[in-house]
Write a structure and sequence with these properties.
mainly alpha
Length: 168
Amino acid sequence: MTSIWQLKVEGTLQECAAHLKYLSGSAERLAQVFPLSSATLETLNDETVTVLDQFVYRFTKLQDALGTRLFPALINLIRDDGEIRPFVDILNQLEKLGIVKSVEGWQVLRTLRSNLAHEYPDSLGQRGVTLNALFIQWIQLADMFHAAKEYYDNTLRPLYSDPQTRLS
């Protein structure tokens, strides 16, 4: 019998894969404009701004899906107790499993995202610094997705597929 947590994990993995596809594509298209400065941010053409917006949007969507749906569902699938845990506890357990390389790394990505959400027109220099950092570090988010997917595919899915070894 498939558990609700397994369905949540599988659905969120599909969602994350779609976000990652577009995030990777936009990063590839933006490679030639980085690093950004205040001056380059002011002179970007409309097409590049659109791709940059897609990059930030897909990063945000991927981080949201990982943090609010995939990671908690994975931990609930592992623990199978339905207990609500503080997110930092979830991150710590995922770090122990090797899915998240470091809790601090997640928090850095979260801070970068937060900085972008609170942009001000007179702070182009800070926006450029934040976008440059995000462009360098977004791959960490992709690595977390791949590690979570691999852990699910190789460790958890077989437990639910084989009735002899199914978690109870």
